[in-house]
Amino acid sequence: MHLLFITTHNLGTNPRIVKEVQLAVNEGYEVTLICFTFNNWSRMNHEEIKKTLKNKITLIEIPGNRKPFLPWLMSTVVFEGARLLLNILPDNSALLSWACNKRSWLLNEHLKRLNKKYDWVIAHNIGAFYPALNLAQKNGTRLGIDLEDYHPGETTIPKEIRRSEKLIKHILPNADYVTAASPLILEEYKKLVSFDSATEVVMNYFHKDEFVPPSMAESDSFQLVWFSQNISFRRGLEQIIPLVDGRKNVELHLYGNCKEEFYNQWIAGRDNIFVHNALSQLDLHKELSLYDAGLAIEPGRDRNNELAVSNKMLAYYQAGLYIIASDTPAQRDFLKTNQHSGIVLSLYDSGLESRFEKILESLHSIRSTKQARYYYAWSMNWESESEKLLKLWEGLGATR
C-alpha cells in the first residue's frame, strides 16, 4: 500500500505528520511525503528530521520562500486574485482554498505532476485539503483528512472564518476518514457540517521512549518550565511572569526562539527567569524530567485555542510534570479526566496570585508524586494511540 502525505508546513513545524509518516514506514507501507521548506528558525529542525527519513520515503520539498521568485510571485497573484474572485464566485472550492492559504495553489500544481498511483492521500492543514481532494477525485484515491486544529477558529476575522467554514463544508463530506487531535475539535467540526466519514480522535501523544524517568530537582526553588516555537506576546506569559518576578523560591525556564521586544519588556533584568534556545523534540522531552511543573497557559485567544489540547500539555503529562493549565475548555476536560495531573487556573481571575502561591507551597507534595504521575501516564503514548490510524488505513483500504 502506498500512502501520500501532504502538508503546507515543513517537517520541523508539523510533528504530527512526521509521526504518521514514521508509523507508516515502520508498518512497511510505501510512503511519499510532500512538504514545504522555509529559510527561518525551523529549518534546522526540518533538516534533522529529514535525516531520520533518508532512504525510507520519497520526500518532495517545495520552496516556501521567495526563491525561486517566479513560483512565489505566481502564488501571490493567485492568492490575491482568489480573494477578489470570491466576490463573484463565493462558493468555488478552488478559490476558497487559494484564498485560505498562499501555499495551497503551489501544492496543487505539484500534485498535478505526480505520475504514481497512491492508495491513500492524507492531508494535514487546511491549505492541503482541497489539493488532496482534487487529486483523490481525479485518480480514484482514498482520502484522509487530519484536523489538528479547528481551522475556522484560528482567526477572529469574520470574512476569513466564513471562508474556512465554506471550504471545510466542501471537503469533509468527501473524505473516507477524518481524524482530529482532540474530542472538542471533532465535536466542533460536526456542528459545522454533517459528514459520514469514519472518524477517530487521535490525540497528539508522543513516543513513550522520548521521555525518561523524572529526576528530583536538587534546587530548593520551584522549577517551572514552558516551551513553544516562539517566546512572545499573547501566549499567557504576561500573566504568569508578574507572579514569578522577584520570588527567590521559584525559577521559570522558557525554551524557544525569544522575540527581542518581548525579552526587553518582560524578561531582561529578572534573575529568576531563564531563556533557553529551542531544542529538538527529543532533547526537549528528556530535558523536561528536570522540572517540577509545566505551564500549559493557553490564553484562549481564539476558538481553536479553546478547543485544542496543546502539545506542551501532553508532553508535560508524559514527562510526569505537574501541569498548571489555563482555563480553556479542552484543558479543563483533560485535567478533569486526569485529576491527579495538575490544576486549572484562570489567567484573568482576581484570585490568581493566591492560587499560584498555594501551588508553590505544595512543592514537596508535587515532587514526591512526580514518579507516580510519570508511570501513570506510561500507557498513554503514540504507540497505543496510532493503532487507530492503522485500523483506518487497513480497514477502509480493504473494504473499498
Detailed description of the structure:
The mean pLDDT is 93. The strands form two sheets. The chain has a seven-stranded parallel β-sheet with strand order 3-2-1-4-5-6-7, with helices on both faces. Strands 10-9-8-11-12-13 form a six-stranded parallel β-sheet, sandwiched between helices. The protein folds into two domains: 222 residues, Rossmann fold; 172 residues, Rossmann fold, CATH 3.40.50. Helix 3 packs across helix 5. The protein contains 19 helices and 13 strands.
Strand content: 15-25%
Distance between the termini: 13 Å
Strand order of the largest sheet: 3-2-1-4-5-6-7
Global shape: globular
Major sheet summary line: 7 strands, parallel
The CATH superfamily of the largest domain is identified as Glycogen Phosphorylase B
**Radius of gyration over C-alpha positions, nearest whole angstrom:** 22 Å
CATH C-level of the largest domain: Alpha Beta
| CATH level 3 topology of the largest domain | Rossmann fold
Instruction: List low-pLDDT spans.
Output: none
The number of helical runs is 19
Total strands: 13
| Number of separate domains | 2
In short:
Helix content is 46%, strand content 19%. The longest helix is centred in the N-terminal third of the chain and has 17 residues, at 69-85.
